[in-house]
UniProtKB/TrEMBL annotation:
UniProt xrefs under InterPro entries: Glyco_trans_2-like, Nucleotide-diphossugar_trans, TPR-like_helical_dom_sf
Top-level taxon: Bacteria
Pfam family, one: Glycos_transf_2
Residues in the signal sequence: none
Ranges of residues in domain Glycosyltransferase 2-like: 5-131
Name of the protein described by the UniProt record: Beta 1,4 glucosyltransferase
């Protein structure tokens, strides 16, 4: 059975570190904590789980810190997590099972990264990350900010999920933006990936015009990863929406089709736009595309589970109600109910539509 080193970089994580380590400790053979300057109880908490604690002088470079953490690993494989990640009991059992059966020729195991949940606890946003990597391959982290692990070889996909549980408030929300702007001030030339992530930071800080400029620079290089290209179109649409430039917002959504087939998230956004324009027939077209879309096999980019399950059906219910097609509206409301049977909107729609179909009642269905 292969052995596993857990490698983490931390700073002021007293609220979450214990939760993270307790969720995974049973599955790993050593825990390596690299502290980058904590002033709270982070190190004290880490000592409850390991004596492998090292300090790393923070140099505004996440890849450097993670590579330093990896350099201290001694086991067959390396698992990496952030302090605000956990393994649920179900996923811990799955990791333990994987550990017992993992073939020695596997270089990396990818896992889901579950980022957001609805009020019923169902995943609404997820992607994939290479999480468990063979130490002897000497894989390296790349990128000072929004770093990535450059992995190659025999990569095995798994159904194990790491769950992201961030604290309510990020105490250092300006950190990444500050790092990028220091690099710009030094005259550094950004890679396409840096242009994309710098634009994201600008957008997240409400600097929409500047974000638009950098998204355009990124897409203009023609060298972006397909998932970043598609995401940049969505984020451009977000910026134009904030600036109340609806036509440019729609143009940005349609622009994504240049890089890949119509994604469900984009179809739902186009459907919502046309529904707002009181064009239910056109809206229904886009929602049908979303509802009928094939689910991605790997989910390496951000995937909205909402737009591939109940939402397009609930919105199709709205569209067909407005078109006076109550049987079709009812059909899609019931399809939505398969995913959210307790949703009060769906329950209300059911009663309304049954009355409509029997030529009784007034009102309207409720939007998603």
């Amino acid at each position: 059975m292969p052995s596993i080193s857990l490698c983490m970089i931390v700073r002021n994580e007293e609220k979450s570190l214990g939760r993270c380590l307790s969720s995974v400790a049973q599955a790993v053979d050593e825990i390596i904590i690299i502290d980058t300057g904590s002033t709270d109880r982070t190190i004290e908490i880490a000592r409850s789980y390991t004596n492998r604690i090292e300090s790393f002088e923070w140099i505004d470079d996440f890849a450097a810190a993670r590579n330093y953490a990896f350099s201290h690993a001694t086991m067959d494989y390396i698992l990496w997590l952030d302090a605000d990640d956990i393994l649920t009991p179900l996923d811990l059992r799955a990791l333990l099972a994987l550990k017992r059966t993992l073939a020695s020729n596997v270089d990396s195991v990818s896992m889901y990264y579950d980022l957001a949940f609805d009020e019923y606890g169902k995943v609404t946003s997820r992607l994939r990350r290479n999480r468990l990597v063979k130490r002897e391959r000497n894989y390296r982290w790349i990128g000072a900010v929004h770093e990535y692990l450059e992995v190659f070889g025999n990569i095995m996909p798994s159904d194990i999920a790491v769950t992201h549980q961030p604290d309510e408030q990020d105490s250092d929300s300006n950190r990444n933006l500050s790092i990028y702007e220091k690099r710009l001030a030094r005259g550094e030339r950004f890679s396409p990936r840096d242009l994309y992530y710098y634009a994201n930071e600008l957008k997240d800080h409400g600097r929409y015009e500047a974000a638009i400029r950098y998204y355009e620079q990124f897409l203009g290089t023609g060298k972006g990863w397909i998932e970043d290209n598609v995401a940049a179109c969505a984020k451009l649409a977000d910026c134009y929406s904030e600036l109340e430039e609806s036509r440019l917002m729609v143009d940005s959504l349609l622009r994504s089709f240049y890089y890949d087939h119509p994604r469900p998230e984009f179809c739902c956004r186009l459907g919502f736009y046309f529904l707002q324009q009181n064009e239910p027939k056109t809206a229904a077209y886009w929602y049908r595309l979303a509802a009928e879309a094939d689910k991605p096999e790997q989910d390496w980019g951000f995937a909205s589970m909402t737009c591939t399950t109940w939402l397009p059906h609930l919105q199709l219910c709205v569209c067909y109600d407005r078109l006076g097609k109550y049987d079709e509206a009812n059909h899609h409301n019931e399809l939505a109910a398969r995913y959210r049977p307790e949703d009060p909107r769906i329950i209300s729609n059911r009663e309304y539509l049954q009355n409509r179909i029997s030529r009784k009642g007034e009102g309207g269905v409720l939007l998603g």
